[in-house]
Amino acid sequence: MAIQSAYNDHIRALAASGRYDEAFDAAQTALQLEPDNPDTLDNLGIVQVRRGDWEGAASSIQKAIDLRPHDGDFHNHLGVALQVSGREKEAEVEFAEAVRLKPELSKQEATDRIIDQTHVTLCFAWEKKLGAGGRI
After folding, report:
1. Would residue 107 count as lying in a domain?
2. Among 64, 114, 130, 135, which is least packed by CB within 10 angstroms?
3. Number of domains in the chain
4. Each residue of 17-58: pLDDT tens digit?
């Protein structure tokens, strides 16, 4: 269990520094050691959002929720993954469940979601621009 906690700290640190490919690889390695670790699945989902893999993110975070259904943070993270993928109605259900399970999420997390969604959207648009030879 301690090694899994260290992996999760490492995954979060890599993601926080923008090293999403390395964070993804670290999450995959951690899941080989403990495939049903909900924290690792959630971290993987967050990294997948950052990499633009919305469906993969939703799937990973849903697995985390299946293992720990009463974690408000997981529902909030799934809401973000669904929101950035354009699945607004499903996202709102998850955000509501997140607040029901963890009421302190409501105001701060709503603000963080907007900031996070804007960041992800801008990154995604920039990557598309670069892929189009620098033109949008």
Report:
1. yes
2. 135
3. 1
4. 999 999 999 999 999 999 999 999 999 999 999 999 999 999
